[in-house]
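> tool_call: predict_assembly(chains=two)
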Amino acid sequence: MVITAQLTNTAVQYRYSTYYDSPSPRSFYFGLSVIIHCPFLQANTTTFIFLPLLVPLPLSFDRANNQNLTVIMPTVSVKWQKELYPAVEIDTAQPPYVFKCQLYDLTGVPPERQKIMVKGGILKDDSDWSKLGLKEGQKLMMVGTADEIVQAPEKGPVFMEDLPEEEQVVAVGHSAGLFNLGNTCYMNSTMQCLHSVPELKSALIEYPQSGRSNGLDQSSHLLTVATRDLFNELDKNVKPVAPMQFWMVLRKKYPQFGQLHNGSFMQQDAEECWTQILYTLSQALRSPSTSANLDTVKELFGIDLVSRVHCAESGEESIETESVYSLKCHISHEVNHLHEGLKHGLKSELEKASPSLGRSAVYLKDSHINGLPKYLTIQFVRFFWKRESNQKAKILRKVDYPLELDIFDLCSDDLRKKLEAPRQMLRDEDGRKAGLKLKQKSSASVDNDVKMSDAAEGSSNGSGESSKAALGGGAASDKNAQLTGVYDLVAVLTHKGRSADSGHYVAWVKQENGKWIQFDDDNPIPQREEDIPKLSGGGDWHMAYICMYKARTIPM
Amino acid sequence: MDPEPNNKTASGTGNPKDESTLKAPSKDPKKKDDKKEEDLSEEDLALKHQLELYVERAQDADPGLQKVALESMRQEIRTSTSSMTSVPKPLKFLRPHYGTLKSYYETMADSDLKKLLSDILSVLALTMSAEGDRESLKYRLLGSEGDIGSWGHEYVRNLAGEIAQEYSKRVNEEASVDDLIELVEQIVAFHMKHNAEPEAVDLLMEVEFLDLLVKHVDKTNYKRTCLYLTSSARYLPGPDDMSVLDIAYTIYKQFEEYPSALQIALYLDNMQHVKQVFTSCPDLLRKKQFCYILARQGLSFELDEEMCADDEDREALQEIINNTKLSEGYLTLARDIEVMEPKSPEDIYKAHLLDGRASAGASVDSARQNLAATFVNAFVNAGFGQDKLMTVTSEASSGGSSNWLFKNKDHGKASAAASLGMIDLWDVDTGLAQLDKYFHSNDNHVMAGALLGVGIVNCGIKNDCDPALALLADYLDKEDSSIRIGAITGLGLAYAGTQNEQIRDKLTPILGDPKAPLDVIAFTAIALGLVYVGSCNEEVAQAIIFALMDRSESDLGEPLTRLLPLGLGLLYLGKQDNVEATAEVSKTFNEKIRKYCDMTLLSCAYAGTGNVLKVQHFLGQCAQHFEKGETFQGPAVLGIAMVAMAEELGLDMAIRSLEHLLQYGEQNIRKTVPLALGLLCISNPKVHVMDTLSRLSHDADSEVAMAAVLSLGLIGAGTNNARIAGMLRNLSSYYYKEASLLFCVRIAQGFVHMGKGLLTLAPYHSERFLLSPTALAGLVVLLHACLDMKAIILGKYHYVMYFVVLAMQPRMLLTVNENLKPLSVPVRVGQAVDVVGQAGRPKTITGFQTHSTPVLLAAGDRAELATEKYVPLSPILEGFVILKENPDYREEA
């Protein structure tokens, strides 16, 4: 009895110290409960006695007591993972649990996790050694890990498949498509383009359901509400949406879209649809009460033009100002690039009655942009009325347009002055980015770069201050962001086909995550940014009809 | 000059090699000869007259004169040498007199002279006798029975042909064939002496007396003889093929070509022969090589004292059979090729090579895509013991492993946990340690996965401690059915092909358990089928049959029910006729499953036999058109592939037949055809099959497309084939919106890069001679599961994909020295060339490159040592090959 106790005593002591740190105190009780029966240990263990387990123990101990001295202790080798522990003595008088404790010392695998392969299965804590037919030098295999047990994270991941449909939108990365209700692709693509303007969405959300007392006609009101609802639907869904309500209201407001041809609705000009919708929205979203927010649509899309009308014959000259929602890009033989087309579009000849000459004379109208919108809409004037065929014919000429458009040289002198400071900042910013990149690239010229970027920073600060000072009193700068005259392409509405009343309209919209999506009615298709400028015409492929650019601003 | 010392029939002195006695077209008009007489040269004219004189003299009354005439005639015939393309002159000039001599012969009294004339007539009949008369043979039998070779090869060949005809006629008439056999023996001896082994074998096969061959083979010709025997066996109907191979085995054993003998023994699945090989070979090192061959076949085989007396040696040998060193060898190969670095699924998808489409929106985890990544990760890093998702240490990325596991949903977690088994494949010790921590999980799916993982890690490896059985046995009766399935499937994988009775005792009760859910029963049937694959075990068959009969009508319609007949079929895998009794029983099943069961049993039983009749039978089944979806045509189509995959010719024919099915078959056939193609060309990306599958992968029917995509993965499995990888990459962008198809694309990508290109799924090995039944069984289970993709692979039983582990083997040649340590030697690896029946010592490979071992072997590749310094102990350089130093080697100065 004493011998046994002493033998195990060391193990117990050891276990005691290690178990003390064990994360699970339960195993500690179990571990000890086998051996604590030894009287002289009771001093340590009184607090840990674990009754239910103590009951079977005396049996084994009695047996140990009787046989201990005569029992041979076979030596076995134990294989654990890649390691082999060659000579492990088994005290067959003790329950296998003691053997497991021995292994715990060797491997650090807690006994309750040890699985020892013996004949006919796994060694149980209470199995009888004699029945296992253990041989001297037998190889045993132990499986078990000393590592922490893997716990499921408290919060499981959220899977896309489990999300409600509206949340899947975020995951998909683009909003839903629109079903074609019968030649309504012009409307669908227009709406997809407009839908990409978040400011318009937020303005629509504020639009009251009840309508306003600003003399807005009922159909305009309904159209505005329908637009709001449609935008909502698009944001909520992954699957394509059928714009039934909107389509009905649109036809009501603008009966020309309801034209029938051979019993089905006719294809219409998307530009017309675009203009009409924007016009309606500008009417509806004009708030009469608050003075600050005059006209949301105008603020977003309106372009102020100042024109000098000059008559060469009489030398008369007058200045006119007007506000338009889009710039026209006229396409002639000389025009190869959007910029040229725009310039072309800003100059026009008109014939009107000259007060000085008393007859009609040719006037030259030379326009400049005097006020820039947040979203610059550019229409390629691709369709012209062909009298002989009695249809809107299309100019297929290729007109390149850039992803980044700078319209500084189309601006009036006043506007140029105003833009100068923000543009300088923008340049500095770009320069700084380039400088930083340079610094990262070449470690050899670190000093130079640092100086450069320091200098750049210094100058930008300086100019920032000066521009602030200059614009400090300016009433126009009620917002922090300043326009720079630089625009980024955000949406393209393309047309494919030979005439405005036929063919197919598609919207190509840049998403908030920077990805381009081609909305071909109900089918959104991801596209590469490189492919967007390829929609410039010159073939039978989709070609840009309306481009929407978003202003690049700089915080002041 | 050929010395013919021991030929008992040798009497002539003529040298047959100098004689060329090619047969001219017998329709050669006689008239022409007459007309041409004037054109003959003087020499020929003289010969002609001389021969005419002989003919006249031969009919003379004086026997002396007769004899001289006949002997002179014989002399003329034998010594005539002419070009190979024309009839020898003496024969030509004697042709007009054939009739005369024949009629005179009839009048002659029996004598030596008559025999002499008979011999001459026999030779003349070579060009004269009408088709089917077999006069050459007739006169030969009546003749002097002298040295047959003295009349030349052509004569012997013609005689052999006539014997074959005569033999079949006599057998039909039940007449005696003794005289023929005597002649056959002469002919065989002649052929075997003169490098015409194929002719000898052909003749013996015709007269069904192959045993005679053993007497005539010697050191110089036994290899060619056996090669011809083994390769012709593929085209013979049973049971002839077995007897042919038996002869080959005997010959190999006789010449101590034990590895080849062992291979034939394995082909015959004859354990008695295998034992004989062990007992008759005294060399321990060679025995070790045998063990490697046995291990590759995936056979569980216990050595006894008779086979290896020494305990220690026996243990060493048994260790090789148990495949314990497979992992080590595989990692040696991996290190040598420098592909140890773990790969993540993204490395495989290579999304950066695609346009912006595929990567759109990855902000939220998709359970299906994560599951796909789990599988891809498991397959790609299979056996390497390290990966970038599951085994990363928790320090590296805040609880990395657990994180990935729990990024899978529900039953996906089972596959994720099991993937650890795949990553640690064959490395039992590490694998079990890795899996152990999941045993303590409180998530049932994780537990189930861990159990399955234990099975996977033990797949093909036997261990004295039987850890898989010990660990899994306790979970067989758990309440949760996913845990049960995990344990059952794990046992099936770990003990596939072992016929372990303990497992049978544990699993059969589950089949009879009325409370057990259908999926548990289905997987039990599969597990039993795997453990007892190809055993024809009655008890197991009974248990599965009863389980099938007990199913309710509604159960029989469930997709998983198809696994029950399959389990039954696996028991008879490749056992041909043995299935008949069970097939009869299956006719009594509920009609819903009857036909399906019939097809499955038949396809399994004849799998890998190349039996053309069975292929025709299956094609016939597929030709029927049904109004509503009958399911039995699925296994029938797979059956075509399973049967025809045995040899190249049949395989090509099957591919063409499957094209027809694509054109004319109904949807249920069309969706199976890609799978059948996948099985036919598994790990062997043939370009035209690749193109077919690529076309089908864009099919309007999504099930066809899914099957085609998966099959693209199967045919490229473990090859890293750049073309398939590119196709799949493009498919991944094409199907980016269709979750199910994208899942299949991902899995296929995982297959193609399986084991980073070091593995193969081909169940055929040893130069496409041997078929590993467990490997085929694993593939067949997967393919049957793919018959209903939606319910099984895309449903919650996606872990059936892990059944491919049974077929996974390193496609390597690893040479080891006498201490079984890797030894690097130069080898030539090239496309294997068929050298059967070619004379001399033709080159066996073409377009080879020289590498140093270990090397990868592609499908159809063969290797040969490029150094004389070592001698391989196996004639087939595949897998582990022990090299012995060549005692005769001299270092070149």
